Amino acid sequence: MSDLILMQGNDAIARGLVAAGCAVAASYPGTPASEILSSIDRWRKKCGATMHVEWAVNEKVALEIAYTAAIAGLRAAVSMKQVGLNVASDPFLSAAYLGVTGGFLVVSADDPGPHSSQTEQDSRLLAMMAKVPVLDPASPAQAMSLAGTGFDLSEAFGVPVMLRPTTRVCHASQDVDAPPFLPSVREARFVKDPARWAATPLFRRKLHDRLAEKIEAIASWPATAPIRVNPGGSPAKAVVASGVAFSHARELFGELGISDRIALYQVTQPYPLHAAFIDHLLETYAEILVLEESAPVIEMQIADRRRVRGRMTGAVPGTGELLPEIVERLLSRFAGLPVQGRTLSTGGGRGRRPTLCPGCAHRSSFYAIRKAAPAGIFPSDIGCYTLGINLGAVDTVLCMGAAVSQAAGFDYANRLSGKQVDIVATIGDSTFYHAGIPPLIDAVVQGARFVLVILDNGTTAMTGNQPTPGSGIGAGGEITAAIDMEGLVRACGVSFCRTANPDRLPEFVALLKEALVHSRERGVAVVIARQPCAMVAFAAGGRDPGAIAITAECNGCRHCVDRFECPSLVFDEAANRVRIDEMTCTGCGVCVHVCPTGAIRSA
Fold this sequence. Notes:
Blueprint: E1 3-8, H1 9-19, E2 22-27, H2 35-47, E3 52-55, H3 59-71, E4 75-81, H4 82-87, H5 89-98, E5 104-109, H6 123-130, E6 134-135, H7 140-157, E7 161-163, H8 167-171, E8 173-178, H9 194-197, H10 201-218, E9 227-228, E10 237-241, H11 243-256, E11 262-266, H12 275-284, E12 287-291, H13 297-301, E13 308-309, H14 324-335, H15 361-372, E14 379-380, E15 396-397, H16 402-416, E16 424-428, H17 429-446, E17 451-456, H18 485-491, E18 496-500, H19 505-522, E19 525-530, H20 534-539, E20 548-550, H21 559-564, E21 569-572, E22 577-580, E23 600-602
Parallel strand pairs: 2-3, 2-4, 4-5, 5-7, 6-7, 10-11, 10-12, 12-13, 14-15, 16-17, 17-19, 18-19
Antiparallel strand pairs: 1-8, 9-11, 20-23, 21-22
Helix pairs in contact: 1-2, 1-7, 3-5, 5-6, 11-14, 15-19, 16-17
């Protein structure tokens, strides 16, 4: 018996995984994949499944945990965003050689656009390098179905399988005919085989040969063969599409009335592309248009530049999402129809500049950093605190954990030039646990001189408030062990480690100045800026709004608006003064210390 349920794509993937008997699921949050793990936990509880579900400290650890369950014969999955796969690439590539005995699914959600990512990379390219087959869903319903198919494929060939949804699939909603949950009766059973599981280079070479044979066989697996969705006739042209681009193309084929003139194929397994399908295309069609996001993975495998058009030939834009209006123009041109004059989307309007939430303690930290080190260099990291760039307290953002290594790099570079510059790096608590600890150890050992401010709001705020290792809460809300951040920092060799509430602005500025003195003379100093995320605190009751008032002494200097940038401070152009937006003000009171004329006061 099945249920028709309106589901978001990530929820559908979770349902598909649990229904297919996934026993171990691990993840590190990252948009657009963040909701998958929490949905797995919800479905696990609903169906009474016995599972291990966890937010891991980073993507590499998450993959290693889930993979190990798969080599013990269970079905397991790991989910992440595409840049998370970079972190997990080391075990990912090795796992392809060693293979699995149970089903193992790597869900890597890509972000064409990109809407909330550092890069627009295509996970399928990393899968090609690893020789891991990829499934590319076009809708939430198909994503759920392919979760089960992925496990079947993984077990049929003993390989990891990648499920690659994109943002539009992850966050779209659709009525889904959900399958029933089937209780898993598997028992973990690891069969020792050191030649495989602990293979030396000689055996790795043999495993690579075996993997190549598997990929060749997967290229003819019937369950993932491309499908022509508009059978009939013998057109000379074909469109080959995958993912969301296929969904757009299928709708537009009807609107443009070209179904009887051009064949339309959906590819659900872009790598390895079925060998017989490639032969069929090249034997049948004079012209072939390939629509896919983001890289030309399918196009590369149909290596006939005379007939194949796509991103490699310039017929399709080389970057960005294939939005419906873009696909319409491409299909119209390919079909020889007049190109419609519909306005192309630019991928988002200007809108309001993203900013930190009202009452966010990160704002206090950044304001204090600017006060304590006005001529400093400010490396930062990945998280909502990247918005500190608006406050002039973020100079660099590279990747997870790089704030610490870049702070050390700036110190070494300046010292080589005979200069001493104050360097204040910022990193969130979750990111610190994820990738900040090894570079901190390295900086201490190498004698680097900088201040590291760990912005500890007790949650992974940017991706939806998932717990951190310091929160003492698990993926399902259960109580877990909590990591002692101060003890961890000191164990890294840091001699100056102090904790303070950044909302107590004058004291926090003084603490930062003390830390800077230490860093100039004795090396790395760490300041933990600890204050719960405003969104969490507000949901739990927060402070009474309206506790702040603007007095008649406001002279309209805009310092609080331009330098502190709290959304609750609104500049009234007509009155030439600031007012409080009581609907959003959390009453944190930090702005009282920001106003140079003392015009902001607690009511």
